[in-house]
Amino acid sequence: MKKLFQEDNQASFEVYESESSLQQEPIAVIGMAGRFPLANNLEQFWSNLTVGMDCITSIPDSRKKTIERYFQLKNMPLDDAAYARMAYLNQIDLFDSEFFNISPQEANLMDPNQRIFLETAWTAFEDAGYGVERLRGSKTGIYVGYSNEGTKYKELIEDFEPESLPVATPGNLQAIIASRISYLMDLRGPSMLIDTTCSSSLVAIHTACQEIRNAECDMAIAGSVKIHLTPIESDAKIGIESSDSRTRTFDNLSDGIGLGEGVAAVVLKPLRRAIQDGDRIYAVVKGSAKNQDGASMGITAPNLEAQADVITSAWAFSGVVPETISYIEAHGTGTKLGDPIEIAAIEQAFRRYTSRKQFCAVGSIKSNMGHLDTAAGIAGFVKAVLMLQNKVLIPTCHFQRPNRKVEFEGSPVYVNDRFMPWEPIGTLRRCGISSFGLSGTNCHMVLEEYVSDAAQTEKDNQMHLIALSAKSKKALMESIALYIDMLQEDNNISINNLCYTANATREHYSHRYFVIFRNQTELESCLRSALAHDLQLTAGELSRYSEHKLGSVRGTADSTHISEEELHRISKEADQLIAQLVKTGKADPSKLFDLGLLYVRGAKVKWRELQKGKGTRTVNAPTYPFQRKRHWLRSMDAVQSNWAAQTGYYQVKWVKEHRLGRNAVHRGGCILILGQPEMMRDRLAGEVAKLLRRAGLDVVEGVVAERNESYGNGSYGFMDTDAGYLYLLQQIGEKSIDQIIHLGGWYERTSSAQLLSEPDLSGLNSLFRLVQALVVAERKQLMDVVLITKQANRVTGTENVTPEHSSYIVFGKTVGQEHLNIRCRSLDIDDLYNIADIISELSYKGSTYSVAYRNGERFIQRIEAAAFVPAQKQILKDGGVYLITGGLGDVALEVATWAAKQKKVRLLLVNRSSLQEAGTDSSTRLERIKTKRSKIQEIEGLGSQVHLFQFDIADSQALSEHYSQWREQFGKVDGVFHCAGVAAPSLIQDRQLLEAEEVLRPKVQGTWALKRVLSQEPLDFMVLFSSVASLMGLYGNSDYAAANAYLDAVASQEGDASGQVISISWPAWKDIGMGRALDNEGEHLFSPILPVQAIAAMEHALSSYRGQVIIGSMNMTHPLLTHHDLAPIEVSVEVQGAGKRKPDASVAPARQTVLSGSAQGYSDTEKQIAKIFTDVLGIEEISIHDHFYEIGGNSLLAVEFINQMERSYPGMMDIADLYSYPSIARIAEHIDGKSNKEQEGKEDPLDLLLDGLEDGSLTFDEALDLFSKGD
């Protein structure tokens, strides 16, 4: 190409434009559609751009909820900080499957990229004035810039619905994104995907334009879609991200790109044909070019020379004077390397033709919404088109100071940083768009504004008919509302063009409405009236609404159903009316009204014939209002839609059992009875010792005393120290110890003063020291240790329990796990005991751990399923004050976050350590602190207040002082979540008593302090966070199990009495708190629970249960359950049976079928076939006359349908029959008819014998012989 610019710009202008050999066919942009971050349509998109909106946000709630399910079910729960900040599309799970005749089942399995692009492409075609009827069979091409990098929807299907993969295949093939549109609209032009990374969508538009020019297609749609399906930080990064997720294109502070999502499509057509066909023209593509970086600094590094060359090549192809380009939509990555190179390339391109400075504005949409990857180019293209159409330049976001590596002063370009009129250089506004791929493929395109010289005069007071339709009444009413909005915003609409666009360029569906009117004001009034009156006829208006369906309803004359014959007849009548209207050239109101009546009845009206010769053209008008519903994997929704219902709920019950028989006591060794002095002096201890001795047994009594000494007759005093217990054992000498009767809980709290006194853990401490002494003394023989308590458990529901006794009992459960020769069990009795029952229990050889006697009746403890009761009440209230102990722990912060999401509340987080001390060791401390701060910021961001307090919750004095402060500052405390707790795994033999007391303290003394201090005013609730360790004990965590048992006992009394207190026995929360330490989950009695599942279950439990409730999934293969002699608590047969039936997380709830289409009921065959339709297509409401292939059926689903039919009706139907009998009614008729014929063909053997006798072919003896043989 020769040098086209000399010093004389005017001369060079003429030389350049005289190069006719470079002139190419201009391409008109006749339709556009798109969805972008914070914009559901292009109107909102443009509005956001004009004000310089920054669209980078945190992940929207709807997106987060959708993808949380994936990570939770993959056992990868994330905190909010893990989700990338970017420019998000919202509601990627919504889709109008019914509109596209795609079954819900298939839609659920379609990649969201396919669904979203399908709707967008349809809207773009409709915006251009082209529907299926107009496009069917045409050489229309589909060009989609797309890459499926990152997590693919198919991976979700593989994980959670692998059985659906055969049906899911088309919906997850990349190429189907483009070809599905060709399939649905019967388009015969090329259909292809283009992947050049970041430049894909602009290259797709370039390719579409080239193939139109090459006559490979007559028109085309080009577009792109980009969704980050799993937008977590690690997945989203591509190596050039900015520090704060924002793109500061050309700014001195630029440090990389932000990321975004979007979808857009444009309809392209040769300009001369678009003018000829009366299409609306947004802008004109003058030309474009693409090239490759080739060898550069690196395979992903930009190449300045290549960028400059692609720009000049596009100018040459377009035949435009470069100096008339007054805006360039730059690629604009906002990186230190990319921005200076791009500006240098633009400058180098311009300097080949002009030395003018600062005449061309530059900007980049990336500054608003980050890098849309494959959709980046079309986003810039749509922005540029809208700027041309509106004749304004819009601001570049985040531009404060120019990049100091770019000399803008001497450059041809300047960064536009404000909203301003766009003055053309020459006659028409022109701009360029650049898109440079990470792959090295570069593309540049030149656009020019289009100014129409078509003027249309409209006759005053001429009658007009506008026809609107939709696939449902709701959608139709939404469409009418959109027309009202448009009429309100623009007072100068061409009514002729509007009616032409609505009537002749849109598809017409079963729900139809028309109105006859004179002018815009009257049209708006009529439409408002239609909405106000639910589309019903109002006096004085020439309008009607009706629905029509092909076919008939059995047993009734339904006016909405018409036959094929009637449709043909009324369509012919419509043709005749149109011919009359065209012939007269007058808009006769009566004929228009008759035409409208035929239209709403279902007639196929040739609207183009009515508009012929009037010079009408397509104008802006509302497109179809899709009725979107959620379409996602049903298995994921089923498991997660109601976490609470998917969780196991259990409660501990005391079940009446038969009393033991009178068994003789046979012991070879001695029996040791020990306890505090007051216990040993009690009647029980004396009677037991006396009876055992009378039975000839060797009984040793040990009494806690101030010094170690012998009282004679086998009775000893021993100090309550480690040495004291060793002394007692030494006194027994070489004799084996068969049984130890430990009276650690043989007392009760009865008076108010006693109930308020601090917990007495002497019984537990005694057992702790005894076990250690037995180990030190090397007592390795099998020993039966009976723990005697008085009313430790709430068995009948009327007792005043002593909660610390439960800690003592549960400590014994762990003893037996750590020391197999020390078998503990519990005997809890009241004052009405029978000494004979006590002796029988002492001699009992069974495996039951906990036995209780009340009023002479025997009870045992059992875990039973708690029925799932729907939540009964709201838990939290706006402005409520809620105390959370252990407030900086992982579990407590999950609870706090949940509370803030429910209501705007004030949260008092009490923690023994400060936030700075939250990390457990130096390697994790900073990260833990950062995470906790982020959680607190999230809570505050939700509108709730967080107040941190550092003190020991077990310090009742400190709690009392703080409570007084809270009362003054916040008012009453409404509820408590007692999450405080510590665990320090260690075997009993290796533990110091002081260490055990530290584990017991937050739960035992902490709960006691809370009850004591907060009893001044009633609470709405107190949730005690217990553990399933209290049920069975926990190897290596005896003190932790015992501490949680105290919570359960408090709740069993307080919860039953007032409903205020509930103790939740939790399994480990997966990957947080103590759950981090879990290695092999299968080794635990209860499977770890996902935090989101735990929170939902807690909310449900708090509103539905009282006292103690156990939450989680029980591992029925655990040795404590498979070996019943080891289990310290019985599990009901029902629970064990349910546990063996492992739930299938992929099984979704059964669908309910709702049938219509008959006023006379439905046959059994119709009902069964309807169920199969529902299962295969996912449609719950269905008419027996619906056509399989018109409600979403396809060849793959047809195979599944026939497979299911074969199971119900073997040999009755093959896949070819589905074309002949496509509806439930037709299939049922076919099946029943075939069955009847088969029955008619089966002759009764008895009839044959009788016939033989009658016609003489058989004798009586022969017939009798055959009958007896069954032949």
Automatic annotation (TrEMBL):
One Pfam assignment: Ketoacyl-synt_C
Name of the featured protein: SDR family NAD(P)-dependent oxidoreductase
Ranges for domain Carrier: 1160-1235
Domain Ketosynthase family 3 (KS3): 24-449
Keyword Transferase attached: yes
Record has Ribonucleoprotein as a keyword: no
Gene3D superfamilies registered for this protein in UniProt: 1.10.1240.100, 3.40.47.10, ACP-like, NAD(P)-binding Rossmann-like Domain
GO cellular-component term (any): cytoplasm
GO MF: fatty acid synthase activity; phosphopantetheine binding
GO biological process: DIM/DIP cell wall layer assembly; fatty acid biosynthetic process
Organism, as annotated: Paenibacillus amylolyticus
Bilayer-spanning residue ranges: none
Keywords for this protein: Phosphopantetheine, Phosphoprotein, Transferase
Entry superkingdom: Bacteria
